[in-house]
Amino acid sequence: MIDLHTHTSFSDGTDSPTELINKAHAAGLSAIALTDHDTVAGWDEAQAHLRPGMALVLGSEISCQTKDGISVHMLGLLFDRENEALAAMMARTRENRIGRMQKIIARLNTAGYEITMDDVEAQLSDGATLGRPHLADALIAAGYMKSREEVFAEVLHNNSPFYVAHYSPTPEDAIALIKGAGGVAVIAHAMASLRGRVISPTTFESYVRAGLDGIEVMHRDHTAENRSLLSEIAEEFGLVKTGSSDYHGNGKLNQLAEFHTAPKEFEKLEARSSEPRVIRR
Question: Largest Cα–Cα distance in the chain?
Fold first, then answer.
């Protein structure tokens, strides 16, 4: 089984890269992608603890935003971590998350939630990318709610009055940067409408022109209709179809390998990178 979308404590997951690799091995995964948000900080640890017989796909889930304000997440896989343009873009996105978090906290304070930036930062692992899940953990620790699911459903969803947008490249720019770094670009959970507004199917033509390689078709947040539509779009444009868990560890229902990528599709995706970068033991 192949799972091409997971997270660790270096972004908003709860498992360390070592724990993720061990769980993936126990789950029978033959290949796993590490795709923490806007960072490559967990790559070295994951690579050092890769188990025999497994393949590791190193990447990052890059936060994007369309020109009309729709959030899009782009999985960049198998790219050169030394590429300066892509690294600079991810660094800028991470830095902007701090100002965004301060604004969200201020809005929550006005509404009576007694939470500080220190409370949120206390939830981060060393080197982790700051995100709303850490704020959710701070609210849970303060006794306001009991789970990340509850926090996002009530106060941190994209249509909430507490929501604040942050700097993100457009999907087209992110794709271009990923491709410029020799990697492959796969759009993640493109039709997950419960997360907020989603892109129109017509948008994919622009992404394909920018160099899009694949679509995450199988995902927990896609309905059967979503999957059918995305599969048709992938076939129309000759894109790779992937399936992934979007695993975060504790606090989300997503389980490793609950959706996975067919081996033939994985081979197609690997062939689209500029050079062999899948790490195998």
Answer: 53
C-alpha radius of gyration, the chain, whole number: 18
Does the reported pTM lie above 0.70? yes
Domain residue spans in the chain? 2-91+166-280, 97-156
Res 144 pLDDT > 90: yes
Residues, the chain, total?
281
204, containing H or E segment: helix 204-210
Q: Which residues contact 237 (CB under 8 A, 6 or more apart)?
A: 204, 205, 208, 212
* Separation in Å, CA 38 to CA 1, 66, 119, 281: 25, 17, 22, 26
Distance CA 128, CA 117 (A): 15
Cα 117 to Cα 15: distance, rounded to the nearest angstrom: 23
**74 — phi, psi (to 5°)?**
-115, 125
- Encoded tokens for 62: 């890059």
Same fold yes or no, 2-91+166-280 and 97-156: no
97-156: what fold?
DNA polymerase; domain 1 (1.10.150)
CATH 3.40.50.300 fits 2-91+166-280, yes or no: no
Report which of residues 165 and 64 the model is more confident about. 64
Contacts of 156 (CB under 8 A, 6+ apart): 104, 132, 135, 136, 162, 163
